[in-house]
Amino acid sequence: MTTHVLGDTAALTGRSLRHITRSPDTIITTAVTPIAIMLLFVFVFGGAIDTGAESYVSYLLPGILLITIASGVAYTSVRLFNDLQGGIVERFQSMPIARASVLWSHVLTSLVANVTAVLIVVAVALLMGFRSGANAFEWLAVAGILILFTLALTWLAVIAGLSANSVDGAGAFAYPLIFLPFVSSAFVPTESMPGPVRAFADNQPVTSIVNAIRNLLAGQAVGSDIWVALGWCAGILVLSYGAAIAIYRRKFA
Protein backbone atom coordinates (compact mmCIF):
# COMPACT_ATOMS: atom_id res chain seq x y z
CA MET A 1 0.00 0.00 0.00
CA THR A 2 2.80 2.41 0.96
CA THR A 3 4.65 1.62 -2.27
CA HIS A 4 1.43 2.26 -4.20
CA VAL A 5 1.00 5.70 -2.60
CA LEU A 6 4.65 6.64 -3.13
CA GLY A 7 4.59 5.54 -6.76
CA ASP A 8 1.39 7.42 -7.54
CA THR A 9 2.67 10.53 -5.76
CA ALA A 10 5.96 10.40 -7.69
CA ALA A 11 4.14 10.07 -11.01
CA LEU A 12 1.77 12.97 -10.33
CA THR A 13 4.58 15.11 -8.94
CA GLY A 14 6.51 14.52 -12.15
CA ARG A 15 3.48 15.71 -14.08
CA SER A 16 3.28 18.94 -12.07
CA LEU A 17 7.01 19.56 -12.30
CA ARG A 18 6.89 19.19 -16.08
CA HIS A 19 4.30 21.96 -16.16
CA ILE A 20 6.70 24.21 -14.25
CA THR A 21 9.68 23.40 -16.48
CA ARG A 22 7.57 24.34 -19.49
CA SER A 23 6.70 27.63 -17.79
CA PRO A 24 9.75 28.67 -15.71
CA ASP A 25 8.38 32.21 -15.43
CA THR A 26 6.44 30.95 -12.39
CA ILE A 27 9.63 30.54 -10.37
CA ILE A 28 11.17 33.69 -11.83
CA THR A 29 8.09 35.73 -10.92
CA THR A 30 8.12 34.27 -7.40
CA ALA A 31 11.71 35.43 -6.92
CA VAL A 32 11.48 38.83 -8.65
CA THR A 33 9.17 40.57 -6.17
CA PRO A 34 11.17 39.61 -3.04
CA ILE A 35 14.40 40.61 -4.80
CA ALA A 36 12.88 43.97 -5.74
CA ILE A 37 11.81 44.51 -2.11
CA MET A 38 15.30 43.57 -0.92
CA LEU A 39 16.93 45.99 -3.36
CA LEU A 40 14.56 48.78 -2.32
CA PHE A 41 15.06 48.37 1.41
CA VAL A 42 18.82 47.81 1.29
CA PHE A 43 19.73 50.63 -1.09
CA VAL A 44 16.99 53.16 -0.30
CA PHE A 45 15.95 52.65 3.34
CA GLY A 46 18.83 50.59 4.71
CA GLY A 47 21.03 53.54 5.58
CA ALA A 48 18.38 54.97 7.89
CA ILE A 49 17.82 51.74 9.84
CA ASP A 50 20.15 50.88 12.71
CA THR A 51 20.81 47.13 12.97
CA GLY A 52 24.04 47.40 14.93
CA ALA A 53 27.19 45.83 13.52
CA GLU A 54 25.22 43.53 11.21
CA SER A 55 24.83 44.60 7.58
CA TYR A 56 21.26 45.45 6.66
CA VAL A 57 21.10 42.89 3.85
CA SER A 58 22.03 40.16 6.36
CA TYR A 59 19.43 41.49 8.79
CA LEU A 60 16.78 41.65 6.08
CA LEU A 61 17.34 38.33 4.30
CA PRO A 62 15.35 36.01 6.64
CA GLY A 63 12.18 38.06 6.17
CA ILE A 64 12.72 38.22 2.41
CA LEU A 65 12.98 34.42 2.30
CA LEU A 66 9.62 34.10 4.07
CA ILE A 67 8.06 36.57 1.60
CA THR A 68 9.50 34.47 -1.25
CA ILE A 69 7.81 31.35 0.09
CA ALA A 70 4.52 33.13 0.77
CA SER A 71 4.54 34.40 -2.83
CA GLY A 72 5.35 30.98 -4.21
CA VAL A 73 2.64 28.99 -2.46
CA ALA A 74 -0.02 31.13 -4.17
CA TYR A 75 0.79 29.28 -7.39
CA THR A 76 0.03 25.98 -5.66
CA SER A 77 -3.54 27.01 -4.92
CA VAL A 78 -3.93 28.29 -8.50
CA ARG A 79 -2.57 25.05 -10.01
CA LEU A 80 -4.87 22.96 -7.83
CA PHE A 81 -7.86 25.17 -8.65
CA ASN A 82 -7.15 24.86 -12.37
CA ASP A 83 -6.94 21.07 -12.07
CA LEU A 84 -10.30 21.04 -10.29
CA GLN A 85 -11.91 23.30 -12.88
CA GLY A 86 -10.44 21.30 -15.75
CA GLY A 87 -11.84 18.05 -14.41
CA ILE A 88 -8.39 16.50 -14.01
CA VAL A 89 -8.89 15.69 -10.32
CA GLU A 90 -12.25 14.02 -11.01
CA ARG A 91 -10.58 11.95 -13.72
CA PHE A 92 -7.92 10.89 -11.23
CA GLN A 93 -10.69 9.82 -8.82
CA SER A 94 -11.95 7.34 -11.42
CA MET A 95 -8.51 5.77 -11.78
CA PRO A 96 -6.90 3.19 -9.45
CA ILE A 97 -4.55 5.67 -7.78
CA ALA A 98 -4.10 6.68 -4.15
CA ARG A 99 -6.32 9.66 -3.39
CA ALA A 100 -3.74 11.29 -1.13
CA SER A 101 -1.23 11.39 -4.00
CA VAL A 102 -3.29 14.05 -5.82
CA LEU A 103 -2.74 16.60 -3.05
CA TRP A 104 0.77 15.49 -2.11
CA SER A 105 1.93 15.93 -5.71
CA HIS A 106 0.97 19.62 -5.55
CA VAL A 107 2.63 19.98 -2.15
CA LEU A 108 5.92 18.41 -3.29
CA THR A 109 5.88 20.50 -6.47
CA SER A 110 5.48 23.60 -4.31
CA LEU A 111 8.42 22.50 -2.18
CA VAL A 112 10.72 22.07 -5.20
CA ALA A 113 9.62 25.36 -6.78
CA ASN A 114 10.01 27.34 -3.55
CA VAL A 115 13.42 25.86 -2.74
CA THR A 116 14.56 26.94 -6.22
CA ALA A 117 13.19 30.47 -5.72
CA VAL A 118 14.83 30.72 -2.27
CA LEU A 119 18.20 29.70 -3.72
CA ILE A 120 17.87 32.43 -6.36
CA VAL A 121 17.13 35.04 -3.68
CA VAL A 122 20.07 33.89 -1.53
CA ALA A 123 22.37 34.12 -4.57
CA VAL A 124 21.28 37.72 -5.18
CA ALA A 125 21.75 38.53 -1.48
CA LEU A 126 25.32 37.20 -1.68
CA LEU A 127 25.97 39.56 -4.58
CA MET A 128 24.58 42.40 -2.45
CA GLY A 129 26.98 41.66 0.40
CA PHE A 130 25.24 39.06 2.53
CA ARG A 131 27.70 37.00 4.53
CA SER A 132 27.04 34.26 7.07
CA GLY A 133 28.94 33.01 10.08
CA ALA A 134 26.85 29.84 10.24
CA ASN A 135 28.40 26.37 10.29
CA ALA A 136 27.03 23.37 8.37
CA PHE A 137 24.69 22.34 11.20
CA GLU A 138 23.24 25.86 11.47
CA TRP A 139 22.67 26.00 7.70
CA LEU A 140 20.86 22.66 7.93
CA ALA A 141 18.71 24.06 10.74
CA VAL A 142 17.83 27.08 8.58
CA ALA A 143 16.93 24.75 5.70
CA GLY A 144 14.77 22.66 8.01
CA ILE A 145 12.84 25.67 9.29
CA LEU A 146 12.27 26.98 5.75
CA ILE A 147 11.09 23.57 4.52
CA LEU A 148 8.70 23.21 7.46
CA PHE A 149 7.42 26.75 6.85
CA THR A 150 6.93 25.96 3.16
CA LEU A 151 4.97 22.80 3.93
CA ALA A 152 2.79 24.64 6.44
CA LEU A 153 1.91 27.43 3.99
CA THR A 154 1.50 25.01 1.10
CA TRP A 155 -1.20 23.06 2.93
CA LEU A 156 -2.93 26.40 3.57
CA ALA A 157 -2.68 26.94 -0.19
CA VAL A 158 -4.30 23.55 -0.77
CA ILE A 159 -7.26 24.65 1.38
CA ALA A 160 -7.56 27.81 -0.73
CA GLY A 161 -7.31 25.87 -3.98
CA LEU A 162 -10.01 23.43 -2.89
CA SER A 163 -12.35 26.12 -1.57
CA ALA A 164 -11.98 29.02 -4.04
CA ASN A 165 -14.69 29.99 -6.51
CA SER A 166 -12.34 31.73 -8.93
CA VAL A 167 -8.69 31.63 -9.94
CA ASP A 168 -8.20 35.12 -8.46
CA GLY A 169 -9.64 33.95 -5.17
CA ALA A 170 -7.35 30.93 -5.18
CA GLY A 171 -4.24 33.11 -5.37
CA ALA A 172 -5.45 36.02 -3.23
CA PHE A 173 -5.19 34.08 0.04
CA ALA A 174 -1.41 34.66 -0.03
CA TYR A 175 -1.67 38.46 0.25
CA PRO A 176 -2.06 38.52 4.06
CA LEU A 177 0.83 36.05 4.35
CA ILE A 178 3.07 38.32 2.27
CA PHE A 179 2.06 41.30 4.42
CA LEU A 180 2.83 39.66 7.80
CA PRO A 181 6.64 40.07 7.58
CA PHE A 182 6.18 43.84 7.27
CA VAL A 183 4.67 43.88 10.79
CA SER A 184 7.40 41.82 12.40
CA SER A 185 11.11 42.00 13.15
CA ALA A 186 11.89 41.25 9.49
CA PHE A 187 12.61 44.84 8.42
CA VAL A 188 13.19 46.78 11.65
CA PRO A 189 13.66 45.85 15.32
CA THR A 190 10.26 45.63 17.03
CA GLU A 191 11.56 47.93 19.80
CA SER A 192 11.11 50.86 17.42
CA MET A 193 7.37 50.17 16.94
CA PRO A 194 4.47 51.80 18.84
CA GLY A 195 3.07 49.75 21.73
CA PRO A 196 0.08 47.98 20.14
CA VAL A 197 1.96 47.32 16.89
CA ARG A 198 4.95 45.96 18.81
CA ALA A 199 2.68 43.69 20.85
CA PHE A 200 1.27 42.20 17.65
CA ALA A 201 4.71 41.94 15.99
CA ASP A 202 6.28 40.20 18.99
CA ASN A 203 3.52 37.61 19.21
CA GLN A 204 2.92 36.63 15.59
CA PRO A 205 4.71 33.64 13.99
CA VAL A 206 6.90 35.52 11.52
CA THR A 207 8.92 37.33 14.21
CA SER A 208 10.05 34.17 15.99
CA ILE A 209 10.82 32.44 12.67
CA VAL A 210 12.79 35.45 11.39
CA ASN A 211 14.71 35.82 14.66
CA ALA A 212 15.62 32.13 14.72
CA ILE A 213 16.84 32.13 11.11
CA ARG A 214 18.72 35.42 11.56
CA ASN A 215 20.61 34.16 14.61
CA LEU A 216 21.38 30.83 12.95
CA LEU A 217 22.77 32.56 9.85
CA ALA A 218 24.89 34.82 12.07
CA GLY A 219 26.23 31.84 14.01
CA GLN A 220 24.70 33.16 17.23
CA ALA A 221 22.70 31.49 19.99
CA VAL A 222 19.02 31.23 19.05
CA GLY A 223 17.56 30.82 22.53
CA SER A 224 13.86 30.03 22.75
CA ASP A 225 13.06 31.58 19.35
CA ILE A 226 13.80 28.35 17.49
CA TRP A 227 11.34 26.35 19.62
CA VAL A 228 8.65 29.00 19.23
CA ALA A 229 9.31 29.07 15.47
CA LEU A 230 9.12 25.29 15.18
CA GLY A 231 5.95 25.28 17.30
CA TRP A 232 4.25 27.81 15.02
CA CYS A 233 5.29 25.96 11.84
CA ALA A 234 4.32 22.54 13.16
CA GLY A 235 1.01 23.81 14.53
CA ILE A 236 0.03 25.51 11.26
CA LEU A 237 1.12 22.42 9.32
CA VAL A 238 -0.94 19.98 11.39
CA LEU A 239 -4.07 22.15 11.38
CA SER A 240 -3.90 23.04 7.68
CA TYR A 241 -3.15 19.43 6.68
CA GLY A 242 -6.11 18.15 8.68
CA ALA A 243 -8.44 20.80 7.26
CA ALA A 244 -7.25 20.22 3.67
CA ILE A 245 -7.76 16.45 3.88
CA ALA A 246 -11.23 16.93 5.42
CA ILE A 247 -12.29 19.36 2.66
CA TYR A 248 -10.87 17.08 -0.04
CA ARG A 249 -12.71 14.03 1.28
CA ARG A 250 -15.97 15.94 1.62
CA LYS A 251 -15.61 17.33 -1.89
CA PHE A 252 -15.05 13.91 -3.45
CA ALA A 253 -17.01 11.70 -1.06
UniProtKB/TrEMBL annotation:
Recorded hits in Pfam families, A to Z, give: ABC2_membrane (PF01061)
Biological process (GO), any one = response to antibiotic
Annotated localization: Cell membrane; Membrane
Annotated membrane-spanning segments are 27-47, 59-81, 102-127, 139-162, 169-188, 226-248
* Domain ABC transmembrane type-2, residue spans: 25-251
The membrane topology term of the UniProt record is:
Multi-pass membrane protein
- Domain of life, source organism: Bacteria
Q: Which UniProt keywords apply?
A: Antibiotic resistance, Cell membrane, Membrane, Transmembrane, Transmembrane helix, Transport
Q: Name one GO molecular function term.
A: ABC-type transporter activity
Q: Which GO terms describe its cellular component?
A: ATP-binding cassette (ABC) transporter complex
What is the first-listed, main subcellular location in coarse terms?
membrane
The text of the family note is: Belongs to the ABC-2 integral membrane protein family.
**Descriptive protein name:** Transport permease protein
Organism of derivation: Rhodococcus spelaei
